[in-house]
Please model this.
Amino acid sequence: MTSARDTNAMLHHYRDWVGRRREKKRKLTSRPWGKIRTSAASYYQRYVIEGLLQQKPLPPSKDGRHIPLRPGLARRKPLEDERTGRPYINNFIRSSRYTVWDFLPKQLFFQFSKLANFYFLVIGIMQMIPGLSTTGTYTTIGPLIFFVGFSIAKEGYDDYRRYQLDKQENRSSAWVLDPENDVKPNARIRRRAKSASKNAESTPVGVDNQMTELEEVATGSQNAEVEPWAEVEWQDLRVGDIIRLRRDDSVPADIALLHATGPNGMAYIETMALDGETNLKSKQACPLLAEECRTIAGMSSCEAEVVSEDPNLDLYNYEGRVTVNGKTMPLTLNQVVYRGSTLRNTAQAVGLVINTGEECKIRMNAHKNVHAKAPEMQYTVNRIVIMLVLFVVSLSIGLTIGYQIWRRRYERRAWYLRGASVPLKEILIGFIIVFNTLIPLSLYVSLEIIKLGQLYFLRDVEMYDPVTDTPMVANTSTILENLGQVSYVFSDKTGTLTENIMKFRKMSVAGTAWLHDRDLREAAKKRQRSASRGRAEKGDKGRKSFTLRRRAEVAPPVEPKPIDEDDSEPPRSIRQSTTSRPGSTVNPSMTHPELLNTDDLIRHIRNKPNTPFARKVRHFIICVALCHTCLPEVTDDGETKFQAASPDELALVEAARDLGYLLVDRPAQCIKLQSQDANGSTVTETYEVLDVVEFSSKRKRMSIIIRMPDGKVCIFIKGADSTVLPRLKQRQLAVQAASAVERRASLRKSMEQEKALRRLSLQSPTRNSMTGGRISATLDRRSSRIGDGRKSLTLTADFDTWLSRRENGEHSRRSVADEPDQYLRPSFTRARPSVDTTLSHDLYDNIIDESLLLNESAVFERCFQHVDDFASEGLRTLIYAYRYLGEDEYAKWKEVYQEATTSLVNRQEQIEEAAELIEQNFDLAGATAIEDKLQHGVPETIDNLHRANIKVWMLTGDKRETAINIAHSARICKPYSEVYIIDVTQHNLQEKVAATLIDVGRGMVPHSVVVIDGHTLSVVEQDESLKILFFDLVARVDSVICCRASPSQKATLVKSIRQIIPSAVTLAIGDGANDIAMIQASHVGIGISGREGLQAARISDYSIAQFRFLQRLLFVHGRWIYIRTGKYVLGTFWKEMIFYVLQAHFQQYNGFTGTSLFESTSLTVFNTVFTSLPVIIPGIFEKDLSAETLMAVPELYAFGQRNMGFNLRLYFGWMFMALSESVIIFYTIYFLYARSHFPVYTDLFPVGQLAFGVSVIFIDIKLFLMEMRHRSVICICGCLLSLLGWFLWNIILAVLYNNTPGPYRVHDGFIAGFGRSPWWWCITFLVLGALVVFELSVTALRRTIWPTDQDVMQEIEQVDGAVYLLKNGGMRPPGADAEHGPREKGPDGSVSATVMPWPDGSEGAGGFSWPWRGSRSGRDKRVARTSVPPSLMEELEREMTQGSGERAATKVPRVRISEDHSELWIQEADSGLAGGHMMQSPIELQSPKSGLFGKRDGK
Model:
């Protein structure tokens, strides 16, 4: 517990730091340089931004924008904005980064911000000055213009595609009221006329079936004289237009609602794409407007004006007013609909446009002034370019000094140079121009070619979604390498993590818990049928029989029938099939019992309809079927669909239908339910709806008062347990039971935290390469049971049982079967053995205790325990309760409620106060658990992201409770996570943040999560010291959940992390318009083509169809691209250094005159013809590790996070090798060939070509064969092509060159001269051999002394079957242990078994062996299988299944018991790899941080 003293000390420390920073900033600005910067910024703002670009800040209007309600006025003359004196901006939106006017200036600035391009621009200008260049005039500036133009064109094409997507939205159709026919439809509108006409014919009828004049208007009429509505494009809408929306239409601009055809004038609006909330919001026109705007004539005749606030960012507040015929009323958020919303469950709605285009709320929240994104690797390249520039200048100065020395010693004595002099500056500049190619001109252009190839291979079939037919799409290639360096993932919730599909999953009634899994069983049956058909088509009967046998051993399938098929079928008490059972996504290793499902429940109450239990269940189902606001809708095929305000309500109504109570109709103030009586005949009952107190985020509950068919009045309530529990009749008893459950949950959580901390402490010392994310740390944390009757080694269930006994004072050691109450708790029990079906009818007598209903304390405790278990699985829970009312009590309350609903002052507050009077003394009915269906693979993906040392934040506009539930389901929150809720309304904000920071900083919390809402975040941003304190906290925690966040706040969080942790690469992923801002603010933006539309997908850098594809995009392609790009840059600089430094070595032998060692034509094509393929092909095709390895071991992703593939240390290492190898090349050739005493050609051209050829061949050998691991046919062909090209080039030169005098005798030199000299070829192979030996020696020394994880995994991949083990979490390949050999009992009672061969036919009595020699041990690491006496086997098994996990790991650290309990696997030697305890093969440790292959085969 953090003390107040520590908290105050922390706050004092941060306030002092903020004060010092302010003082430092003040001093900096008061200095001359600070004053110059301040003045320059002021002049830039005044003369450039405001003067030249005319981007002046708009002053606020006097009292808002005044918009008259006059049909057609805005179409005749656009309304003027009083702030600018010009018309309001149009409805055109632009999410592309450039316009026609600013594209070229911005791109020129962006391209020349790459220092290499700027360097060549300077060199090119110097080269064009006459008399300075010895290599030509346009040899630098010409290619530079081409290369930069190519990059600009590619960037322009990428942005043009974004413009095309914007154009689709801007040209969408909308209908405006145009009584005077001022709108002239363009050609695109005419082409859409026919389709609009057809859509009009299929428009659904209004709910109230009372058609107004507004609804009767034909939308597709071809007679313009009688058509008051005109079709226009979205971009042509204006402020003041009156627009009409139909069901499922998107809202094109911010509007004030004038009229809607829903019940009581309601319009149901979906704002999921705006704020992430899944519930529909009910909007209602202002009463003054609703009365006048029911018809077009009414709108034309009334004198109305809407006064709206100036455009701003706030999505959750709105201020305005409306005046109609002299009467004024406020205009609130409930009467305004924002762009980005969608009209749902409402036939038609009409609204007045109040904001358009970039002034709409959603666009105001978008990230403005979007800059072109640059890869993080570019900053390192810029630093290298700076160093190379300094190196070139230093080298030029050194050679110039050398020339001066040579001049004094030799030149003055040379009679033929008398009187000749060259100015010193020309010598220096000449050398700079000669060596400018040390920085390759084609660096960025070849990189663009490589990225185009990388972009092509991103089209991975593994990232294709066949359901939506959506592939992965890359909108840019500029930042591809950032995909391999991500440290933070900022994710939206709705549509990104979830599918926004709610499913009723579990329920608790009368102290019993039931599973509703009909949809899962039907899906499982379909999969089994398709799998059976697939197996039948294969025809491999032997293999099929083995597969079926193994599946039967692991999980014998049971196919339950629906209730309708056979009512007499005995109930199945124990469900053994795991395929149709939803496991906990929060903690997959947690053991749960197989709950009875609701089909069994319905069957039971049909068999025994008059028991108290059956009556209690029926009453609970009626509660679920009545307490909602859903509307039934019968489709053309006779199927009943439901229109609900939220997915939760839809799931509950559908569950009530599955449980036997179907909502068939909901006329005015009535609900009709259809059910079956005891005889099986259909009965329809009518329930009168007296009053409804709707759900709100403040109340967290909903109530409905019903007159039952028997005339009694009953109030039903549903809501969160925290709100319903204090309103129960036996509230004191309920609070005690809930406290006991909470106490047990808290102890269980503390136990989990202690276990997690112990696992962390068991981690062996880390190497530098694995700090914070090493491979030995939980390479597979998954745990599963193999076999049906096998004990689980997970200790949570045992601990829960012990804890429950201790709470109840029971210390006797009883079996689980002796505790009937434990069977119904998922976390308390284990699977029971199967029960004989002849006894199945009596089974419920043992499970359902009718007398338990008389013990309210027991019912409360079980219900709340079920709720706690449901919530721990990430399910959304609701408590149901009811109370029967007397007629007098209801009548008195009705008067109070009627007065509240008709009040014009504080209506909502009075309604809530009236509801408090009636919502008391309830009887508990039961609880429901709804699954907010996650996208497939989300929990596993987030687990793997955590393993890859990537922090996952969830930023959503949804409610806090919903966000936390989803965080648990998606495993953003662990079962042992400490969740810190930062809420300005509940705490002293500074003290709470400081106390949390101290707790997290102590390192005693294994996994910490901070939860903050948008309002609290806005308060944090206003206080500088609090802001620094808060962002210091969130940088330390494992995850952050930000709820009720606006789009601009999402972007602010992303930008803050970028500022606080500059080295971190951020990735934002979302699918809605509310995610655009954070996608643009992050280093990498990922859009999901999801349910909220394509807004995010089209503006993002890359788009995928499912969240689970993110791990393949990052772990596989991100790492590969990072490796490829890093090797390309290093290889490019290396080959330039090794080649051009030969010129520097040669200068001392030519008098420092700048004479080139190489013939000029060959020198010109060195980069393009001879050495382009050795860097381009690895940059496109290199794969250091296989995809299976990278997916199985996410910890390997840390390679890019820590810049281990490209950094200054690696660069200096490569440059050291280049300089060393250039020394070997030059001086070996010079002393063994140039100064040879043999009769050979030793003039300049043969010597230069020898050095040239050795360099080209060695560059090919190193980059193609020594550095490239993935050697494909393309690699070999590229190598051969490059080598053959060099020799072919020599032949071409020898033929084409004329026999003219000069320093380079090229004609027939290779064919008839030095090419025929054996010594020339001998020296070539000798130098190449020396270079290869030197390179291999250094590599071997490095891999022996400083091995990396990459080296280790490459060695592992060479082992047969190792990749399969990595991929499948430690399970052996199919057939490896399929059939056991003959078993024999030894004299001591031990059991022997034969080691079965691996797929390649190899067999080894020692099990699996990795012959890797690490730095700590030279022995082979081997895992052996042996036989063990049964007594020892039982003792070991008992030891492993009792006590805490750490105790078991300590006593039996390297032991695994086989599936049939007859074999023991023991590790013979410590299997540390590369100096670290990284790998225990299939050995299973209790601590997940100790083994590489996880927990597939048990412990």
Q: What stands out?
A: The chain has 51 helices and 39 strands. The chain has a mean pLDDT of 76. The radius of gyration is 38 Å.
